[in-house]
Design goal:
The chain is an alpha+beta fold. The protein folds into two domains: 32 residues; 116 residues, no CATH class. Helix content is 33%, strand content 28%. A seven-stranded antiparallel beta sheet has the order 1-2-3-7-6-5-4. A hairpin with a 2-residue loop joins strand 2 and strand 3. It starts with 11 loop residues before the first helix and ends with a strand. 15% of the residues are buried.
């Protein structure tokens, strides 16, 4: 009469096969978990909305996107582009723009009501109201960036839209 072989009689080949499969499963699970963590970090850095009391609390890569004297900063990152809302004095903004744009920087242009209604009345600026204190800055850098700022010289409120191509 034939008997069924016990697990022990199957030999080391069976056990090593199970061990190999177990190791492979662990490697795959660790790889997937690592990939998800990397994706989450990249998303947080490049595709998130964050609020900061000052630029000192921003992610180091984002720290130079706004004036160092800015406060109450909301940063909307979208890949290499970003939009930011913050409060900064006229002097602080001028220093930042001169540092970033050097000799190519030119002073602000007044924003009249018609220009405001035609160019600034979009979703991002829907809660802004026109005033005589609004000025705009439009700048370009040779490395492929454009920057448009709308600044209220009385309150310091600033909207910055920067794009890279």
């Amino acid at each position: 009469m034939r008997t069924r072989p016990s697990e022990e009689s199957k030999g080391p080949q069976s056990r090593s096969g199970a061990t190999l499969v177990g190791c492979l499963v662990k490697i795959v699970v660790a790889g997937v978990a690592g990939t998800l963590i990397v994706c989450a970090v990249i998303y947080f850095i490049f595709f998130s909305t964050t609020h900061h009391e000052s630029s000192a609390t921003m992610f180091p890569m984002h720290g130079d996107l706004t004036p160092s004297t800015a406060s109450d900063i909301t940063l909307y990152a979208a890949g290499l582009d970003h939009t930011a809302e913050y409060t900064v004095s006229e002097e602080g903004l001028q220093r930042f723009l001169k540092r970033e744009f050097g000799s190519s920087f030119e002073g602000p242009e007044a924003v009249d009501r018609e220009t405001f209604d035609n160019y600034y009345r979009d979703g991002a600026l829907a809660d802004w109201e026109w005033s005589e204190d609004l000025v705009s800055y439009d700048m370009w850098k040779s490395r492929g960036t454009s920057h448009r700022l709308l600044h209220d010289t009385k309150t310091g409120r600033t909207h910055q839209a920067s794009a890279h191509w």
